[in-house]
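Schema walk-through. Below, the input block comes first and the output block second. Nothing else is stored per chain. Lengths vary across the set, and this one has 172 residues.
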Amino acid sequence: GPAQTPGVLKAMRQGLNIEIVGRRTFLLGAGASLAVATFLANLPALAQEPVRSLDEALKKVLGDAKPAESGITLEVPEIAENGNTVPLTITGESPMTAKDHIEAIHVFTEKNPQPHVVSIFLGPRAGKADISTRIRLADSQKVVGIAQMSDGSFWSEEVDIIVTLAACLEES
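--- output ---
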Protein backbone atom coordinates (compact mmCIF):
# COMPACT_ATOMS: atom_id res chain seq x y z
CA GLY A 1 0.00 0.00 0.00
CA PRO A 2 0.98 3.66 -0.05
CA ALA A 3 3.60 4.92 2.31
CA GLN A 4 2.02 5.75 5.65
CA THR A 5 3.78 9.06 6.27
CA PRO A 6 2.03 11.69 8.41
CA GLY A 7 1.60 14.01 5.38
CA VAL A 8 -0.07 11.30 3.29
CA LEU A 9 -2.35 10.23 6.19
CA LYS A 10 -3.43 13.85 6.79
CA ALA A 11 -4.20 14.32 3.09
CA MET A 12 -6.19 11.07 3.00
CA ARG A 13 -8.27 12.21 6.02
CA GLN A 14 -9.06 15.47 4.23
CA GLY A 15 -10.39 13.53 1.22
CA LEU A 16 -7.53 14.31 -1.17
CA ASN A 17 -6.66 11.59 -3.62
CA ILE A 18 -2.87 11.17 -3.67
CA GLU A 19 -1.27 8.75 -6.07
CA ILE A 20 2.27 7.59 -5.42
CA VAL A 21 4.08 7.07 -8.73
CA GLY A 22 7.05 4.83 -9.29
CA ARG A 23 10.47 5.97 -10.43
CA ARG A 24 9.92 4.71 -14.01
CA THR A 25 6.62 6.62 -14.40
CA PHE A 26 8.19 9.76 -12.95
CA LEU A 27 11.21 9.56 -15.29
CA LEU A 28 9.00 8.96 -18.34
CA GLY A 29 6.89 11.99 -17.44
CA ALA A 30 9.95 14.14 -16.79
CA GLY A 31 11.50 13.04 -20.10
CA ALA A 32 8.32 13.83 -22.02
CA SER A 33 8.11 17.25 -20.35
CA LEU A 34 11.74 17.96 -21.29
CA ALA A 35 11.11 16.94 -24.92
CA VAL A 36 8.09 19.25 -25.16
CA ALA A 37 10.02 22.12 -23.56
CA THR A 38 12.93 21.63 -25.99
CA PHE A 39 10.56 21.57 -28.98
CA LEU A 40 8.83 24.76 -27.82
CA ALA A 41 12.17 26.49 -27.21
CA ASN A 42 13.26 25.66 -30.79
CA LEU A 43 9.96 26.59 -32.40
CA PRO A 44 11.17 30.03 -33.57
CA ALA A 45 14.11 28.37 -35.38
CA LEU A 46 11.76 25.89 -37.06
CA ALA A 47 9.55 28.72 -38.29
CA GLN A 48 12.37 30.66 -39.95
CA GLU A 49 11.99 31.86 -43.51
CA PRO A 50 13.24 29.22 -45.95
CA VAL A 51 16.54 29.82 -47.73
CA ARG A 52 15.82 31.43 -51.10
CA SER A 53 19.26 32.06 -52.64
CA LEU A 54 21.92 29.69 -53.89
CA ASP A 55 24.65 31.45 -51.89
CA GLU A 56 22.68 31.15 -48.61
CA ALA A 57 21.97 27.46 -49.22
CA LEU A 58 25.63 26.74 -50.03
CA LYS A 59 26.77 28.60 -46.89
CA LYS A 60 24.47 26.44 -44.72
CA VAL A 61 26.31 23.32 -45.92
CA LEU A 62 29.84 24.66 -46.51
CA GLY A 63 30.14 27.23 -43.75
CA ASP A 64 33.38 29.08 -44.57
CA ALA A 65 34.99 26.11 -46.36
CA LYS A 66 36.08 26.45 -49.99
CA PRO A 67 35.34 23.30 -52.00
CA ALA A 68 37.89 21.88 -54.43
CA GLU A 69 36.59 21.98 -58.00
CA SER A 70 37.28 18.32 -58.64
CA GLY A 71 36.45 14.85 -57.36
CA ILE A 72 32.74 14.92 -58.23
CA THR A 73 31.04 14.69 -61.62
CA LEU A 74 27.49 15.86 -62.41
CA GLU A 75 25.86 14.42 -65.51
CA VAL A 76 22.78 16.25 -66.77
CA PRO A 77 21.57 16.80 -70.33
CA GLU A 78 22.73 20.08 -71.90
CA ILE A 79 19.12 20.74 -72.92
CA ALA A 80 16.13 19.41 -70.95
CA GLU A 81 12.86 19.28 -72.90
CA ASN A 82 10.81 19.24 -69.68
CA GLY A 83 11.93 20.75 -66.35
CA ASN A 84 9.56 18.46 -64.44
CA THR A 85 11.85 15.45 -64.79
CA VAL A 86 15.51 16.11 -65.48
CA PRO A 87 17.85 13.11 -65.14
CA LEU A 88 20.88 13.69 -62.89
CA THR A 89 23.78 11.37 -62.16
CA ILE A 90 26.40 12.25 -59.53
CA THR A 91 29.64 10.31 -59.30
CA GLY A 92 32.36 10.81 -56.70
CA GLU A 93 35.97 9.74 -57.11
CA SER A 94 36.46 8.22 -53.67
CA PRO A 95 37.85 4.85 -52.57
CA MET A 96 34.92 4.69 -50.09
CA THR A 97 37.05 3.23 -47.30
CA ALA A 98 36.48 3.82 -43.59
CA LYS A 99 39.16 6.54 -43.54
CA ASP A 100 38.44 8.13 -46.94
CA HIS A 101 34.85 8.29 -48.15
CA ILE A 102 32.09 10.63 -49.25
CA GLU A 103 29.73 11.27 -46.32
CA ALA A 104 27.11 13.25 -48.23
CA ILE A 105 26.27 14.58 -51.66
CA HIS A 106 24.27 17.81 -51.81
CA VAL A 107 22.59 19.20 -54.94
CA PHE A 108 21.68 22.87 -55.34
CA THR A 109 20.03 24.91 -58.09
CA GLU A 110 20.32 28.57 -58.92
CA LYS A 111 16.73 29.51 -59.84
CA ASN A 112 14.44 26.99 -58.13
CA PRO A 113 12.17 28.42 -55.40
CA GLN A 114 14.11 26.29 -52.89
CA PRO A 115 17.74 26.01 -54.00
CA HIS A 116 18.70 23.01 -51.82
CA VAL A 117 17.29 20.17 -53.93
CA VAL A 118 18.54 17.04 -52.13
CA SER A 119 21.11 15.67 -49.69
CA ILE A 120 22.13 12.03 -49.98
CA PHE A 121 24.08 10.52 -47.10
CA LEU A 122 26.59 7.75 -47.74
CA GLY A 123 29.10 5.68 -45.80
CA PRO A 124 32.05 3.48 -46.63
CA ARG A 125 29.75 0.46 -46.92
CA ALA A 126 28.06 2.09 -49.94
CA GLY A 127 31.03 0.79 -51.93
CA LYS A 128 30.69 3.39 -54.67
CA ALA A 129 29.55 7.01 -54.75
CA ASP A 130 27.33 6.84 -57.82
CA ILE A 131 23.81 8.27 -57.50
CA SER A 132 21.14 8.67 -60.20
CA THR A 133 17.85 10.50 -59.74
CA ARG A 134 15.55 13.00 -61.42
CA ILE A 135 15.08 16.59 -60.32
CA ARG A 136 12.73 19.44 -61.19
CA LEU A 137 14.12 22.68 -62.59
CA ALA A 138 12.26 25.98 -62.68
CA ASP A 139 14.21 27.40 -65.61
CA SER A 140 17.52 27.27 -67.46
CA GLN A 141 20.09 27.53 -64.71
CA LYS A 142 23.20 26.37 -62.94
CA VAL A 143 23.15 23.07 -60.98
CA VAL A 144 25.77 22.65 -58.23
CA GLY A 145 26.89 19.39 -56.68
CA ILE A 146 28.84 19.27 -53.41
CA ALA A 147 30.51 16.15 -52.01
CA GLN A 148 31.17 16.30 -48.27
CA MET A 149 34.21 14.15 -47.43
CA SER A 150 34.95 12.16 -44.27
CA ASP A 151 37.99 14.37 -43.55
CA GLY A 152 35.80 17.52 -43.49
CA SER A 153 36.78 18.78 -46.95
CA PHE A 154 34.39 19.43 -49.83
CA TRP A 155 34.45 18.79 -53.58
CA SER A 156 32.22 20.58 -56.08
CA GLU A 157 31.13 20.80 -59.68
CA GLU A 158 28.77 23.18 -61.48
CA VAL A 159 26.94 22.57 -64.75
CA ASP A 160 24.66 24.81 -66.78
CA ILE A 161 21.46 23.38 -68.23
CA ILE A 162 18.93 24.80 -70.67
CA VAL A 163 15.29 23.99 -69.82
CA THR A 164 12.70 24.46 -72.57
CA LEU A 165 9.57 23.83 -70.44
CA ALA A 166 9.92 25.20 -66.88
CA ALA A 167 8.75 23.40 -63.73
CA CYS A 168 8.22 24.12 -59.98
CA LEU A 169 7.25 27.74 -60.33
CA GLU A 170 5.69 29.51 -57.32
CA GLU A 171 2.97 32.09 -57.49
CA SER A 172 3.98 35.48 -56.07
